[in-house]
Amino acid sequence: MTLLLTLPELVLSLGATVLMLVAAWRGDGATRAISVASVALLVAAGFAACLGPRGVGFHELYRADAFAAFAKVLIYAATAVCIVIAPRFFGDLRAEYPVLILLSTAGAGMMVSANDLLTLYIGLELQSLASYVLASFMRRDSRSAEAGLKYFVLGALASGILLYGISLVYGFTGTTGFAGVASAFRAGLTTGQLFGLVFVFAGLAFKIAAVPFHMWTPDVYEGAPTPVTVLFATAQKVAAIALLLRVATVAMGAATLEWRQIVIFASLASILLGAAGAIGQTNIKRLLAYSSINNIGFALVGLATGTREGVSSVLTYMAIYIVMTLGSFLCVLQMRDARGRHVETIASLSGLSQRRKGLAAALAIFMFSLAGIPPLFGFWAKFVVFSAAVDAGLTPLAAIGIAASVIGAFYYLKIVKTMYFDVPAPDYAPAASRLENGMIAACATFIVFGYLLIPAIGARADAAAQALL
Fold first, then answer.
1. Residue 110 in 3-state DSSP?
2. Residue 71 above 90 pLDDT?
């Protein structure tokens, strides 16, 4: 019964092992079959997460609950898209790509189900080690190699900071279990425990790319292959945020007043720097990197409350965020010159509305939604986190966040202005993928008509938050 609690991770890890052997025996000729099997494994893992048993296992190291199930479904859905869009981008995709994706996703699942600081670290490292390879997957591309190296070096630094924080928490509480840490914190926070808390939050802040630990994000997002960038910006972002939610509210909930100061600073700094840093960008992937930093700042507004409503608002925000981000990057994948080479300059979008009306309309929808402009669904994402902040008595934080969101709207609207009012640039290559076009249309439809899903998303987010608090 205990082993069945980890059924999603078992499906992914065992499946990845089998597919790795297939890749070794069959070579790159089996890439398509391995990719299809990988997506099937992700679907199976999603059903296992939703329908599998609930409880705590392995001597309270691992927890399967509604919160983990909610996060895993988002992670698996985004990961499946990253596998589906890869063949057209790479052209000669190697068979190892979907296997590495599955291994990284298995680590992400361990992260959101962690009930102990050691499980947290193991899941985080499993996810990160595969990610370093994925970032540098295009070995002959200097930008990809640079992205992988930067991600590895800075990731190792963040891992060391996190591990040092875990050692401090263990040293001053005598346990690594979330329940034991919470009990020790309730007895009174000592100076040593406070230092441990700070280092743990610093290490996790790197994984969510929150200021001041955001420095790797623009370079890695730009240099990594676009399908890998999509993985970093969606699935891994959800995993890191979910992990932070569990650590903050379950393990360190008794120290809410102490870590709230850290979260509020990171939130406001991320909102402001993410908005200001994007203004001067000329590369669309770097702009979306700063956009992700900006959006993490808004999500942290909900976490700063430390309440069940705040956790629910963060989960709702992330559910909407990944659809907006997936849609935006799918549009980026359509940016190819006449010879089929990928183009990433914002200037190439000039006059897109006259050349590719559908693509321009879809990208405009995603930009308006990311800016939080009603009636698109991105407005609701911001509304729920600000509402939770106001209800928790953090009205100044909500007011500053709302005011700062105006800065972020500038660079989103700049993209729309470029597409609709600038002199047309050379046309892109014709859209050759019906699958990509269909996914863009599905994401745009979700953003436009997503308000119809508010009861369903809200109910599941509330259930997930209730399982946590």
1. helix
2. yes
What does the CA dihedral 18, 439, 113, 243 come to, rounded to 10 degrees? 130
Dist CA 315 CA 218 (whole Å): 24
Query: DSSP readout, 87-100?
Result: HHHHSS--THHHHH
Residue from 432, 294, 430 nearest 367 by CA: 294
In angstroms, the CA 211 to CA 294 distance is 9
Report the run of H or E that residue 238 belongs to, with start and end: helix 235-246
pTM higher than 0.85: yes
Task: With CA atoms as reference, report the closest residue to 34 among 76, 89, 86.
Answer: 86
| The two three-digit tokens of residue 46, written as one number | 């999603």
DSSP state of 342: B
Residue 55 φ then ψ, to 5°: 150, -175
Asked if residues 89 and 242 have their Cβ atoms less than 8 Å apart, the reply is no
* Cβ neighbours, 10 Å, residue 154: 17
Least confident segment among 73-77, 104-108, 340-344, 358-362: 340-344
Mean pLDDT (the chain) is 91
Q: How far apart are CA 420 and CA 437, in angstroms?
A: 20
